[in-house]
Design goal:
The chain is mainly alpha-helical and 225 residues long. It has one domain: Up-down Bundle (Rhopdopsin 7-helix transmembrane proteins), CATH 1.20.1070.10. The chain has eight helices and no strands. The longest helix has 44 residues.
């Protein structure tokens, strides 16, 4: 019972479930936006609202399955510290999990973000050039929509860069912990500091969304008056 209590409240298992979910939700948004832009007809004919709900449920289940059992197996419960990812059955098991985790929540998402948003911006800009040279009616509305699309994609790319930069220190620190190098540990102030950088993304992102939207800019202009 003490182990269960430590697992739920003394370790970082639940925290990492939330981290997993937030990262994979961003990945899902990137892929969904890519499909909408690149394969709009297929998306219109086949995408159903329940797809999104199902994927969100899967994302949270994946976070639970990935983090809770591994935290229980690897946590040091001595002296009621509940320090996770420090007492693996074998060093190979720890190395395998850390490698999988960094790939799945940092490296692969980063590749997906860059691929999806780069392609989306290229497609939208290509469409803008086609509309500009065709001289078709309703061009102003189309151009406005394209600009909105590009603005949204730029916003998501800013969030991607923020995610990449602020989570990098904790990922590197995580590697050093597993390598048992230079006294790196989850019980140090340095670990809390690099985690603070990572969690800062959750505080910064709402401001990025706000500043990049027209409603926020209009509010600021009105407020200044």
């Amino acid at each position: 019972m003490n182990r269960v209590f430590c697992l739920l409240f003394g370790s970082e298992a639940i925290m990492w479930v939330g981290v997993n979910a937030s990262v994979f939700n961003l990945v899902f948004i990137a892929i969904e936006r890519f499909i909408v832009t690149r394969f709009s007809l297929w998306h219109r004919n086949h995408y159903k609202p329940w797809f999104g709900y199902a994927i969100v449920v899967f994302i949270w289940l994946d976070g639970l399955i990935t983090n809770v059992p591994t935290t229980y197996v690897s946590a040091d419960f001595s002296d009621y510290t509940c320090s996770p990812f420090t007492m693996w059955p074998t060093k190979a098991a720890g190395t395998a999990f850390i490698s999988y985790y960094i790939l799945s929540v940092y490296v692969i998402p980063l590749i997906v973000f860059v691929f999806c948003y780069t392609n989306i911006i290229l497609v939208v800009r290509g469409n803008s050039k086609i509309h500009a040279t065709s001289g078709q009616t309703g061009h102003s509305d189309t151009n406005h929509n394209d600009k909105n699309q590009i603005n949204i994609m730029k916003t998501m790319m800013i969030i991607t860069v923020t995610f990449t930069v602020l989570w990098l220190p904790s990922e590197l620190y995580f590697i050093m912990i597993n390598a048992e190098c230079c006294g790196f540990s989850m019980l140090t102030k340095e670990w809390n500091l690099v985690l603070l950088f990572g969690f800062a993304t959750s505080c910064i992102n709402p401001f990025i969304y706000g500043v990049r939207t027209g409603n926020f800019k209009s509010f600021i202009k009105t407020f200044k008056k």
